[in-house]
Amino acid sequence: MYNALMSQLFGQKSCGAKGGAIYSAAVCIYIVASLVISYIIQGADLSGDGAAYLLYLASPIAIAATMALCPKVFNSPLRPALCLSCKPKYVLIAVLAAFGLLFCLSYVNNFTVYVLQLLGYTPSGGTIPSLEGWGMLGALIVVAVIPAVAEECLFRGAMLGNLAGGAGEVNAIFLTGFVFALFHGSPEQTVYQFICGCIFALLAVRSGSILPPVIAHFLNNGTIIILNGLSLVDGSGNLAAPPWASVLITVLAALALAGSLVWLILDKNKFKRGESGQVKSFFAWAGVGIAVMALVWLLSLLQGFGAAAA
After folding, report:
1. pLDDT in tens, 275-299
2. Which value, to the nearest 10 degrees, does the dihedral of the CA atoms of residues 202, 106, 189, 143 take?
3. Among candidates 94, 9, 4, 7, which has minimal Cα distance to 281?
4. Where are the extended beta strands (E) located within 109-265?
5. Phi and psi for 210 in degrees, rounded to 5?
6. Which of 44, 79, 151, 218 has the greatest CB tally within 10 Å of its CB?
């Protein structure tokens, strides 16, 4: 009876429902994991790097638990979604895209923060662990390696695999970009994370593999850690370099990003179209996760304005 129910809910024709249900499950488990870890931190009176490392593990733990549920609960096999094989050119495209995102579109992130500050918002500042000595290695692992692998497996693997087969590849790219940005619950980075999420999804769709988006994701996060650890960025997150060098790097990054996008868009045949009703089905099943993370996002926004008022 259970198998029949799962087949009815998440059958072959309900790819949108599968993607939405996977997202809602990941969000709910993430909230529970975050609460448990917060209690552990408070109970053990942890602070500094110990607390920061634990907080960064909440999302990967939730994602791992969600992925474990996919084959049986959501009738969504993982092997096709987690393919690592791809043509070498997609690795090159991933590197170009990461370079372009970090050194060109990062200005979108800075502009978002600037606009929010004009409205009275105080940036949170984040909770990156210490980058001194061996701390940089630890930060690279918990901020770059683990999130890149875990988040790409969930968003560009399990979710995108289902959505592309049901809602169509273009819809899947934008839908996963949207929920990826929302999953982080950061008003300051929402626009930048949405763009990153869409480009990572485009990489996965064209390459048929999660390896290129994992590489791009890691390079994006890892470069930020290294630049901060080596004091190569200023207080605003901009590259600490002479004006001419900053302009040159920005121009090269813009060309790299534009080139990688054109290469991906024109690389293969037309994007596969989806079936009617799949987008609606996705939102119906992702509604719980979207509502919860929208609330987290709103609370973060209000906290930023509250900090400014205080």
Report:
1. 888 999 999 999 999 999 999 999 9
2. 80
3. 9
4. none
5. -90, -5
6. 151
